[in-house]
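thread: overnight batch results

M.L. [08:02]
morning all. the overnight job finished for the chain we discussed friday. pasting input first so we're all looking at the same thing
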Amino acid sequence: MTDTSSDSVSDTDASVVTGGQSMARQLAAEGVTHVFGIPGVQLDYASNGLAAYRDQITFVNTRHEQTTTYAADGYARTTGRIGVALVVPGPGVLNAGSGLVTALACSSKVLLISGQIPGRHIGKGYGLLHEIPDQSGLLESLCRHSTLVTDAGQVAGALHGALVRLQGEPGPVAVEIPPDVLSGRTDGAAIGPEPAGTPSPGSTDDLAAAAERLAAAERPVIVAGGGAVAADAWDELARLAEVLGAPLVSTVNGRGAFDDRHPNAFLPLAGKELLGRADAALVVGSRGLDNRANVPWMPDGAVRIAINVDPSAFTPPRRYAATVTGDARTAVAALADQLGGSGGGERAPWLTDADDVRQRVNDDLAELQPQLSYVDALRSAMPDDGVLINELTQVGYVSSYAFEVRHPRSYVYPGYQGTLGYGYPTAIGAAVGNPDRAVVSINGDGGFGYGLAEMATVMNHDVPLIGVVFRDDAYGNVQRMHRQQFDGDHHGTELTNPDLVTLAKAFDMDGHRAESPEEFQRTLAEAIDARRPCLIDVPLGRLPDPWAIVMRPWPGRPAPTA
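M.L. [08:03]
and the structure it wrote out:
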């Protein structure tokens, strides 16, 4: 039974609660411990509901709605738990949209709870506060699934359904709750959490066909994409690589799928040449397309096999000899079981033959200076389980190819969305969710400007986050491309920045400046030991182009034309 009156309800009343209290109670029952959000008039009863559970759920109020979903994404990808965001309707949802599409690109377990206008007015176009055309349709397009709740008695069930869906199908899910539903009353009880099931590895026949083709290969390669990261296939990929005697390489979006120190592991730059030599390639959790040219990057000479939870990843222009529609972790484990053994035997000749590729990649990366020296300093200063939130910045681009990932859930990148400015807000969620791990956010001054106000959030909640700004006082990558394309001319790329050390001190945050890789390594190590919020300013001049090396053709293969 429900009652849509908005009379206040005692927090101690166990039988009748508001929709907002039902929301908070259900989140607590499901084990949610953090919500990232900004309060607002349509969310008053949601805020009041969370207040009744403040001993179980920490409400991290941010300074911009984009941070709510970014932080939820960082929380989810580094903890394995569901990240929850809460925003008002209309502009709140629109501001949160960049975090939603990043979560979509990275198959991240993010739940957005959004307000709405009063239910009886939805779709009428009255011009009510925060009303936008078809908010529900917008959320459907940005999320795996979206639900509009129309009655206080449905709140618990809608949230429970969303959380169950997120266990089995990563990617953002939204639940819209109008203010009259949040203030309405219900006598419904919370729904108990459901244990996460084991994701399906795919059909037995498909797995057998894939295993047969891999077993026949003499030079197999395993390529891990972002889906392998999302599925936590860290151990399973290593085992399959050992069983096959196969090189293990990731796409840029698949960084963090395995330990880069594994003897079978190769950095992404090795992938092009390894695939050119391979007679079979297993693609795990990747869309298999160049994200700019929309062309397959797989060579024609290899037998191509793919594992993906989304069967649309197998469609043309991609061509696969065998496909498995299933979870990356469980499917890879099933293949290893079928192929036999646990690996770890004598090193395969194919791996020894590929050692020259490893050396050539290291030689190529060594040319990327001074960026590589800063990447090496970053790796040396951070503990193995430290979390790197890698932004779209000059040092970050090289980190995408050269930073050595050593621990599960310790590397975050925005996937194919390439959302500039995501880094510092995302790192807040990672640091909140991992209070015992060092979390380092590297940014350019362009990207850092998007979330600069979140320094206040870091201090308000005493988040021991270390922000690093590699500052060139420009949108450096864009400026360099302008110069290259337009005879040295560029437009709209210069930036004016505050003194970042002074800014940090204005927030009562530790602030430092490091002017060389050696000074940066020492400063970062000291900041990690201090376990306090910190900002490190690293001034850089104009840097050399990394893409000339990263995108250069590999031996025996032509340069890409697209």
